Amino acid sequence: MSLSTAHARKPSWLSGGLDLKKVLLEGRAFFALIAITVVFSLLSPNYFTADNLLVMSQHVALYAILAIGMLYVVLNGGIDLSVGSTVGLSGVIAGYLLQGVDLPGGGRAYPSVWVTIVCVLAVGALVGLINGLLISKYKVAPFVATLGMLYAARGVAMLITDGSTYPELQGSPAFGNTGFSRVGFDDILGLPAAVIVLAALAIVASVVLNKTVFGRRLYAAGGNERAAELSGIPVKKVKVQVYVFSGLCASIAGLILTSEMTSANPNSGQSYELTTIAAVVIGGASLMGGRGNIRGTLLGAFVIGFLADGLIIVGVSEYWQMVFKGAVIVLAVVLNAIQYRAKPRAKAACISRGGRPTTQEPKAPAPAALP
């Protein structure tokens, strides 16, 4: 074997060297999570314990469930600012039903827990449907449409409760509506129910993104909506579906949060939308659409959650906590910009050397011949 042949067969990672910058950029959420865990474990002996890890995982589960729904929206090139208000509205709807509903002809009905859950999920889907229709059919900018829904959903929650809280949602055996508290407090195989729900949702969402026609359509529409539309992808339908899914995820998080507090507060979920977007961005998703995955989003949610709980455990002031979270979000956006700005340059360099880009956009159909 000639020396030149041996050199040609040498693996690219040996010939070209290890691209440390690329490794750090693409694995930043993972490395950040390790760094956070190590630092706070050194600062507090109570941080890295089995009990505390379970508690922190339960807190993270809420953000991660919201982040999975937000990821679908971001992959489509959109944004959903209404998820925090949908969390609060979902909790209020659950409290309203569990407290009993006055019937028009007199009397009072007490829906079961399962009926309550179905109704709450329907409300979340309805909020997402309205967002999706405003954006896809009426061409309202996602930021504007979901910002309006943020205020509308929060206002409806306030109107239902008159600004107060529905307390003690344990239900009554006499009315057959007990068991709601198990949604947030029950343990399954030693893990909190919220973590089990998160795991199931993450698996389903990942399979849909990577193994189904809808997932391919979502990535295509988010990467280049015009090209996807010309290739026959129903981009408007996909857009509506992702917002409905985001609303469903928000209602699931609202059910879990309300169950954990055993009360329904119309102010629940405030600023959750910002934390959720931060988790998605830290996980490597591009706010321009078309790039991101479930694994990175989950890591981003754990980074946000473990950082917040660690700051509380070591006694950092609430105001400084806000500063640290804001710095992390800004840093994540900057790193995203660096990562995705480098890829078009690499593609252009490949073309200039006579190579071909790895992906091709669908071509527009040729115009029909005139008679």
Q: State the helix count.
A: 16
> If classified by CATH, what would the architecture be?
Orthogonal Bundle
Strand order of the largest sheet: 1-2
Oligomeric state as shown: single chain
Stretches where pLDDT is under 50 for at least 5 consecutive residues are 1-15, 345-371
Q: Could you estimate the helical fraction of the residues in percent?
A: 55-70%
Radius of gyration: 24 Å
Overall number of domains: 1
Mean pLDDT: 85
**SSE string:** HHHHHHEEHHHEEHHHHHHH
- Beta-strand portion reads under 5%
How many E strands? 4
Shape descriptor:
globular
Judged by helices, strands and strand pairing, the structural class is mainly alpha
CATH topology name: ABC transporter involved in vitamin B12 uptake, BtuC
CATH uppermost class: Mainly Alpha
Describe this structure in words.
By secondary structure, the chain is mainly alpha-helical. The protein is built from 16 helices and four strands. It has a two-stranded antiparallel ribbon with strand order 1-2. It has a two-stranded antiparallel ribbon with strand order 3-4. Strand 1 (101-102) and strand 2 form a beta hairpin. The longest helix is centred in the last third of the chain and has 35 residues, at 318-352. It is globular. The chain starts with a helix and ends in a 19-residue tail after the last helix.
